[in-house]
Amino acid sequence: MSSDSEMAIFGEAAPYLRKSEKERIEAQNKPFDAKTSVFVVHAKESFVKGTIQSRESGKVTVKTEKGEVNDQIYSMNPPKYDKIEDMAMMTHLH
């Protein structure tokens, strides 16, 4: 990976292209449960982060950041993969 100083050539767009070194370290140390962390389809924002609350007889109950419950869910990659340049390293591609 390139250093933060190399990203300076991208100016204002740099934060959208790659996390800073500090953000990458924080993401690697952030607690993450691959079995319960999911993305949920949302009408206005496309997808929102959610946490599986229960799984019963084929139904999944999910609590989202927006407080909604929906059963159309997709697995989430660990935070350390946010803005990753090599997508081959990702576990889930949607």
Give the helix/strand class: alpha+beta
Summarize the main sheet. 4 strands, antiparallel
Spatial arrangement of strands, main beta sheet? 3-2-1-4
According to CATH, the homologous superfamily of the largest domain is Myosin S1 fragment, N-terminal
The N- and C-terminal alpha carbons lie at a distance of 24 Å
Q: Per CATH, which architecture of the largest domain?
A: Roll
Write down the secondary-structure element order: HHEEEE
- What's the tally of helices? 2
Tally of domains: 2
Q: What is the strand tally?
A: 4
Low-confidence stretches: none
Shape: elongated
User: How large is the share of residues in beta strands?
Assistant: 25-35%
Give the helix level as a range of percent: 10-25%
In CATH's first tier, which class of the largest domain applies? Mainly Beta
Briefly note the CATH topology name of the largest domain.
Answer: SH3 type barrels
Q: Estimate the mean pLDDT confidence.
A: 77
Describe the structure.
This protein is α+β, with helices and mostly antiparallel strands and 94 residues long. The chain folds into two domains: 1-30, no CATH class; 33-93, Myosin S1 fragment, N-terminal (SH3 type barrels, Roll), CATH 2.30.30.360. It contains two helices and four strands; from the N terminus they run ααββββ. It has helices at residues 14-17, 21-29; strands at residues 37-42, 46-56, 59-64, 73-75. It has a four-stranded antiparallel sheet, with no helix packed on it. β2 and β3 (59-64) form a beta hairpin. The mean pLDDT is 77. Belongs to the TRAFAC class myosin-kinesin ATPase superfamily. Myosin family. InterPro entries: Myosin_S1_N (IPR008989), SH3_Myosin (IPR004009). This is MYH1B protein.
